[in-house]
Amino acid sequence: MDIRTLREFFKWCTIINVALFILSAIMLIAAPDFIYNAHGQLFHMPREAFDVVLYSFLGLYKIVILVFNLIPYLALRIVEKK
User: Fold this and answer.
1) N or C end of the chain: which has fewer CB within 10 A?
2) Measured between alpha carbons, how far is 76 from 57 in angstroms, rounded to an integer?
3) What are phi and psi of 31, to 5 degrees?
4) Closest Cα partner for 61 from 23, 11, 10?
């Protein structure tokens, strides 16, 4: 596997994960009550705790995207130019 293949892999991983992140954020902004009710049937927790869990999830997901997708992609771009 060469650097170009790895670079393309990380590029598409970043694009797909950012799209999923944006979709998740839009869903949480547009329909928070629907999401709470849907998950409330499975997990019984107060609304305030649910909001904290979802906010933490989005923050952690953003960090994971940066660390495991975007930064390796940028590093491969830098190495490829040298």
Assistant:
1) C
2) 28
3) -140, 60
4) 23
How far apart, in whole angstroms, are the C-alpha atoms of residue 45 and residue 8? 41
The CA angle 74-80-82, to the nearest 5 degrees, is 115
**CA–CA separation, 80 and 82 (whole Å):** 6
CA dist 62 and 31 (Å) reads 20
Q: What is the pLDDT of residues 24-82, one digit of tens each?
A: 999 999 999 999 999 999 999 999 999 999 999 999 999 999 999 999 999 999 998 87
The pLDDT assigned to 1 comes to: 85
How far is residue 73 CA from its own chain's centroid? 16
